């Protein structure tokens, strides 16, 4: 038994005043190819396609062709975002177009695997909407197809290029907080708008379609240190959605841990917080929603609060395509 006295302030978890220090300049903005200007073909022009097209227009990338099962939707998107693009009656024509370099597939997972495979075999680079596949073996097979044909295959993990996630990731990569010990995200919002939409048929909607951004964030920090994941989902009292709006996950990693909490049934007082603890410092981001976040870096030198530019929508989408290019 030690004779070391107990520090009552430490025992009570009291914090101490910290000096405000200048935030480091980190490369968190979405990547842009220096000279490569590919022509993009989009297959699927549903709701999320507007964010893709708006981001590409802002970046100056040409969308050359569109296809959608309902032609009128493709025509509407073309008129608003890319008037010079052709609207095709068959997705195979977009894939076969020798003037198109990249195929952006925004369809739901159950519809896009044969399209992704055909595009890869045609020598096109492919950006797939997330979540990538419903079966891990199928995903690994598509990666092999891309490798065999010498083309790039990427997933539209747009959250990794949201300003707050990107800055925190780059801070970790720069070694500013040392080794990552824990990552904790807590998201509270109203996902009830999905009731009666095609999303209402997606099994494990919150974890699978929405929460995938935070799983990606944890992996971007911890990499191969992740050892196991345990997750649960539950129906919220009074919810009208068919799929659970409440979910959580515990991630065990070598020398650390992570937790993800998703409360998709919180119509009032939305909140989004992320905390990353390291051996030399910590990172925290908080705000009322995904697009309004304040980040703080705390180390032995003090606390730094970077002034971040951009928004998740639609800088995140520009980053996903830019990372591929």
From TrEMBL:
Q: Does the keyword Oxidoreductase apply?
A: yes
**In what residue span(s) does the Gfo/Idh/MocA-like oxidoreductase N-terminal domain sit?**
39-156
Q: Which domain of life is it from?
A: Bacteria
- Where are the annotated coiled coils located? none
What are the GFO/IDH/MocA-like oxidoreductase domain coordinates in residue numbering? 167-284
Q: Which UniProt keywords apply?
A: Oxidoreductase
Family matches, as Pfam families:
GFO_IDH_MocA (PF01408), GFO_IDH_MocA_C3 (PF22725)
Which InterPro entries does the entry link to?
Gfo/Idh/MocA-like_OxRdtase_N, Gfo/Idh/MocA_oxidoreduct, GFO_IDH_MocA-like_dom, NAD(P)-bd_dom_sf
In its UniProt record, a GO molecular function of this protein is: nucleotide binding
Q: Where are the transmembrane segments?
A: none
Family that this chain belongs to: Belongs to the Gfo/Idh/MocA family.
Identification of the protein by name: Gfo/Idh/MocA family oxidoreductase
Species in which this protein is naturally found: Boseongicola sp. SB0664_bin_43
